[in-house]
Amino acid sequence: MKLKNNGIQILPIPKIEDPRGNLSVIENDIVPFDIKRVYYLYDVPSGSERGGHAHKELQEFLVALSGSFDVVLNDGEDERIVTLNKPYEGLLINPGIWRELQNFSSGSVCLVVASDVYIEEDYIRNFDEFLKYSNYKQKN
To answer: Is 53 a catalytic residue?
Structure first.
């Protein structure tokens, strides 16, 4: 199955190489939205999953700062798995995409850059409700 390209995209993050250690910077010219919130997931126990929701308006940019994890993406019709494991690439997730994060490696850190502050009403936390929302949105 192929997920529609308008829902997700891998974006490069500039990497400044230096023998003392590399540096990458995420600014508003990297992501297509104004950055309003930044948070990160870490110490995720083996076998645990995060996410399990979609957003109506929010855009997110996920980066594996350390280690790796899989992002399972679903647009209501198709599903795709993207493995993130490079700190100089990020996954842009547009609104209306269900996401689940799983298979976290030991010591992995997931950085999330978001287009807005936390707004509970923007979340769709039930997959059946997401499918209804997705179907409605595709018809209109």
So the answer is: yes
